[in-house]
Design goal:
Its cofactor is Mg(2+). The protein is of the alpha/beta class and 260 residues long. Helix content is 42%, strand content 11%. Helix 1 crosses helix 2, helix 2 runs parallel beside helix 3 and helix 8 runs parallel beside helix 9. The structure holds ligand 7PJ.
Amino acid sequence: MGIINVTPDSFSDGGLFLSTRQAIAHARNLIGEGADVLDIGGESTRPGGQYVNADEELTRVIPVLEALADTGIPISIDTSKPEVMKHAIEAGAFMINDVNALRNPGTLEAVAPHNHVQVCLMHMQGTPQSMQTNPQYIDVVSEVKIFLQQRVQAANAAGITVNRLVIDPGFGFGKTLQHNLSLLNRLNEFTTLGIPILAGLSRKSMLGAITGNNVDQRLHESVAAALLAVIKGAKIVRVHDVKASKAALAIYTSMRDYDK
Ligand code: 7PJ
C-alpha cells in the first residue's frame, strides 16, 4: 500500500491546486513502482497534527481519488470522518482506513451498507494531539488485541462482515519505542483473529529512535521494518517507498514459496 498525502504545506505558496497535482503525479509514480493499493490522506494524523474539517478534507482527497479512477488501482481513503467516508465511497473508494477504528459517531453507519468496501480498523491510545505524551500498557500486545477484537465485534454488529475487515496495531499511535518493538516482535499473535493484518512502520520516529536518522533518511530501516512485519504475518504494508519495499519482499516471498 503506497502512501499519498494531500496536505498543503502552509509554508509554500502552491496551495491546494499544486498539492493536488503533486499528489496525483506521486500516485502515478507509486503505481509505476508496483503499488497494489494507494492510501490517500487529507488530514495529518501524526502526533500533534492539525485538525482539518470535513469539507476541507474532501476538497483535498476527492479530486485525487477521481483522477486515479482510470488507473483501476484500488484506493483507500485515510479518514475518521463519516462525511468523508460517504463521499469517498460514492467517488469509488475501495477501502476506508480509519486510525480511529470506526469509533467516531456515524462512521459505522457510513460504511456498513457498502458491501464492496473494505475497512481497516487501527488501534490508537489517546488522540493524535496527546497520544505520545505518556502511553501506558500493562501488556501492549494483549491490550491492542482485545481492542481490535472489540472493534471487529462492533463492526460485525453494525453489519460489516468479517471478510470486509483488516486490522492494524497502529505503530506509533500512543506507543513508546518499547511498545512498538513488542508489537512488531509479537505481530504473529494477531493472526489468530483470522483477519488480514496491515502494518504501517514506514519512516516512523520509532525507526529514527533506533538509527538516529532523520525522517527523510529512513529508507533502509523502513524496508527492514516492512519486511519484518510481513515475516511476522502482515498481509499489507503501508509504505512510502514502494519500489524498495517490493524488491525486499520479493526476495522473502521467493524464498518462502520456492518449493511450493
Ligand atoms: C498509519 C495510518 C498506520 C494505518 C498513518 C504516518 C502516520 N493508517 N496512517 N496504519 N499511519 N492503517 O504515516 O507516519 O500505521 S499516518
